[in-house]
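Here we describe the complex-level prediction in full. Unlike the single-chain runs in Section 2.1, the two entities below were treated as one system.
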Amino acid sequence: MRQPKIIVVGGGLAGLMATIRVAEAGVPVDLFSIVPVKRSHSVCAQGGINAAKNQKGEGDTTAKHFDDTIYGGDFLANQPLVKRMCEAAPGIIDLLDRMGVMFNRTPEGLLDYRRFGGTLYHRTAFAGATTGQQLLYALDEQVRRHESDGKVKKFEGCTFLSTVIDDRGVCRGITAMDLRSMEVKTYTADAVIFCTGGIGAIFGRSTNSVVCTGSAQSVLFQQGVDYANGEFIQVHPTAIPGEDKLRLMSESARGEGGRVWVPKKPGDSRPAKSIPENERFYFLEEWYPKYGNLVPRDIATRAIHRIVYQEKLGIDGQAAVYLDVTHIPPEVLDRKLEGILEIYEKFLGVNPRTEPMKVFPAMHYTMGGIWVNGEDQATNVPGIYAAGECEYQYHGANRLGANSLVSCIFGGGLAGPAAVKYARNLEKGAESAPSSVFDRERRRQEEKNQALLSSDGTENPITIWREMGELMTEHVTVTRVNKDLELADTELRALSERMKKINLSDRARWSNQTLNFARELENMIILARVITLGALRRNESRGAHYKPEFPNRDDPSWLKTTRAKWVNEEIQIAYEPVDISQIPPRARRYDAAK
Amino acid sequence: MAESKQVIVRVKRQDGPKDSPRWEEFALQWRPSMNVIICLRDIAENPVTRSGKKTTPVSYESNCLEEVCGSCAMLINGRARMACSALVDQLDQPIRIEPLSKFPVVRDLSVDRHFMFESLKRVKAWIPIDGTYDLGEGPRMSSEVQQKAYPLSRCISCGNCLEVCPQVNEQSDFIGAAIISQVRLFNMHPTGAMHAKERIRGVMGHGGVEDCANAQNCVKACPKEIPLTESIAEVNRQAWKLALLGWLIG
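The structure predicted for the assembly as a whole is:
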């Protein structure tokens, strides 16, 4: 029997889980990652991972987790797979526990659970405030074990450039570039699973890591893989502003009792601690009495924007609100939140155990992503699969906190065996594709490198990237206005034009990071346009997508999935129905119990 | 004027593994909350030295920018640390930025730390689960053990502990404190403990725990404040116990 071969691109949680599952099926797997997989962006996830284990005797069930997720996502997610994910979540926690994740424990030695946004139950298992890091390490260790046994071959420091698609439209492998030798090579595989994560860099500064550019997703899009719900971008309510990055202050701070407030008096310049209780405005608690500080992220973010921009109540007139954990005993803070408090202290030089933190919303996550079917993470191109943040399946119009880690592991776990099954069922494997198909694609990529290296223009890639980020953050995040979105699209096209006059200031053929960045930047601009056009078309407000001109959710016109396609080198936006077979849509509100 | 304040940065450049290094100096515009990563980005946007000579952007590794991925370790004013948390206002100028010296240079500040990941294989730093299928919950663990193990599990493989260790040099293959601490971590876990001997054998012999000369630099350099010297002492004890047992049984 023919031995199939699988490639996984991306070594975060989803990619590692997919890799493990393929290796367990006895199929060789090549794992590609820009950074050593242990340094993937999943390490930045802080607060925890959701599973309705009902470990606090509150009557929590997987059905309630499912309902919270669909409701939190404003009914835009296709429901059947979300249901399966919520049902699988308790088993995923067990698996991670068996892998040795150092989850926090109760006095009985069981896993501890805390509250998170958009639910009234203690449903979130956690390992201090570095849960993503701990989960990633557990999977990284399992992959290393399979690597030791010769089942997995890692290509770290190797970036995906394109898929190799044969004349029948079937994916037969990839081209990738070694980031040291800058050599472009082709790699054959019967199926390729993409787990390429977030797209934060499109917004310049975000809570995402440097590698989260969305470049791979954009490449796939330009090769005929559809992209769904791109306009749904999560802006996290609480991050520390910074010049290089907006550092996340986990929702778990509020899950453990942290409170968000501003001084009642505009421009009050007294130090936070000296402002008496009755002169503080706990606006989330006041506006959303049932969920309080734990309303979903889209709601909290809009509330903070309203406080700062409409009510002019930002701290000392600035774009900031307090996130206050000073009333929580230091012992609890150190046991449950140390990781994030350490970040605040290191980067701002202020101790958040005694001084309220100053935070502001920041681009954090994309609900939208590569279009996949509702069964097994397959895209519309045969042989291409996607899992994790890079695909669109699980979170609808807004993701609930601590649901991303579970969707990564569930999706990756589904994609691995699905790709194996597909590969085994192929009549003719990738080896049957003519070598000319591979040569053609390699040459195309080499020519792209050559063009960039020899371009002798005046434009600097970092400058173009910064301008794109500012544009996207201003017009395509929290509040969206159609004329601004139109302007943003025009400007993005202008940036694409300026890319033609690029100057890399580095023509080296060895470890040329500027060359790789310029390639990514071209792709980022196209994905930025997909996001912008999706937002421009959707004339309603739903979840994270908010238009003051169309302030309400409009199910008759807009309960549908945006599906962007690349046709004749242009973006085409189409729509398809949402699978609402399990829970009929109802109005979404958080000021009272649902 | 604070706004026009300059930041002077000296970067050790090296085109490739076999090329000889050189220094370049840059004058950058000061900004609030500036860190070394922002300095390197500013250079990339305008790669011109202080003396007005055109140069190339500096090659360096970075990813999370919040000290949790371990990428951006380098020598800053002679000290091994993460560039993202190295705030300009807390550094003496000119700021000297060099690659870690105990790892092969790839280009400029990028180094090859593959050795650390290979060492994790050597000591079998994992829990050997039977499979990812459903086998129910993991073993129970007291909160006390979890609180002891969790700090060890925060190691980001940055390599700073190897950089500052006098035992890591051209004559020695010492695997370093980070790896030894991982042995302790996995041996603490109820399932991991079943395979403790395999891991201990991994840190015995050439380059193993015995090569530690107790300089205690590692624990001071660790950005995650992992009790590395405690880990070394504990693993050393486990290694002696295993060696003694082997000798007794013959």
